[in-house]
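Troubleshooting entry. Yesterday's outputs looked truncated, so today I'm pasting the complete records for two proteins to confirm everything comes through intact. If either block looks cut off, that's the bug. Protein one:
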Amino acid sequence: MVLFSMMILMLLTIISYAASKTANTEVKIARNEYLYHNNFYCAEGAVVESIDKMEALKAIDVADFDWMMSKSPKVDNDPELFEYWVDDQKTAEDAVPETAAVCSSAEFVAIHQGVFAGSSLDMSKPTTHAFAVYGRSNNRGLVMIKVGYMKEY
């Protein structure tokens, strides 16, 4: 009887240990998901903030804003853009990421990609310009989003 009791006790100990390990893993998963969602919403808020700033302007001159730049070989593809955010050797033509008001860990950059293909080149009509707006949040995890934006002016 004592041997049977010891076996049951050992079995219950193993089951409780496995359950506590599973619970710890679930807590870590929930924490990581929370951080990801928080970073995503901060990056999205940064993009919306930059688009609001551009929407308020009648015409956009890239030279007027530090956080805007014309298309550049440094940011022609997305993998290079990850390095661009941390590159300390930017030239005067390069955009400086601006910290978003919505979240202190979020920044944004807008890249003017030129006149939208297929838009009218008639000088009497407004021309549609294309922008790539990037938002980035780096708070115990990194999220970067890219949104296309078009404006006529």
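Protein two, checking that the full record survives here as well:
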Amino acid sequence: MAQLKDLTRIMKLYPISNPYFKTVTADLPDLTDFYLLSQKTINSLPEKFKKATSSLIIKVENFADQETLKSLKIIDKYDLLGLYRGTPLPAKRSSPSIPLPDIVFLYRCPLIRYSRDNHETIEALVHHVIIHEIGHHFGFNDYDLSWIENEK
């Protein structure tokens, strides 16, 4: 409901007849664009990783839901770019249980804002976030992934 109020406020400030509004919105990628970019990254993985990621579900949403933000102790909804939710592969091998679906979430609006603020292309940013979240799928934590990313 808050998003609807925000949209209504924006539409009053920037009516459709305003050429600035048309230019800005025309350049913003939609949910489908993000999904296609994520699939491009997954398709570019080396063959040995494709089988291990074949069951991953990619979900693209505008923002993380409030429950997710609260559970991660994130106050600003723009601070979460992506999320892996599932059972990492090493845990699946060590304890047979009912498997949860492995889902990688991409959050469109935070990604767009981060891209704009850091002068990074959406494609490069989506690629980075997808690889990072796949790292969690393989059992790496944020510290491990940070170290790996800094070794480039």
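Both blocks look complete. Sanity check on protein two: The domain at 32-150 is CATH 3.30.2010.20 (Zincin-like).
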